[in-house]
Amino acid sequence: MLFPDPGHRAVPPLEGADPHIGRVGDLERVTELKVELVCDDSLIHAAVAALRQAHPYEEPAFDVWRLEDIQGR
User: Fold this and answer.
1) Which side of the chain, N or C, has fewer Cβ within a 10 Å radius?
2) pLDDT digit string (tens) for 22-46?
C-alpha cells in the first residue's frame, strides 16, 4: 500500500557515509512517501532484502511488525 501524502524528514549524513542526497555533515531535508506491505512470515527476509535492494539510501528506514490473528471480540 502506498500512502500518497508525502512526509518530511531531516537527516544529517554521518562521517564515512556516501549519501544519495546531500553531503556528509550537512542537514538534508527530504520528502518521502510511506509504503506498507503484508506478507507471510516465510517471505519476510526476502521482502526486506527487496526493500534494501530497491531503495537508493545506504540505510533505508523501515519497521517490521508481526500481525496476529486474534479471534473473537
Assistant:
1) C
2) 888 888 888 888 888 889 999 999 9
Residue 34 three-state SS: strand
Cβ atoms of 20 and 58 within 8 Å: the answer is yes
Mean pLDDT in residue range 51-63: 85
C-alpha 31/C-alpha 45 separation (Å) is 27
Instruction: Let me know: does 22 contact 9? Beta carbons within 8 Å.
Output: no
In degrees to the nearest 10, what's the CA dihedral of 41, 56, 28, 16? 90
Compute φ and ψ for 31, nearest 5 degrees.
-100, 130
Residue 22 is classified by DSSP as: S
CA distance 48 to 39: 11
Q: What is d(CA 16, CA 43) in angstroms, rounded to the nearest whole number?
A: 32
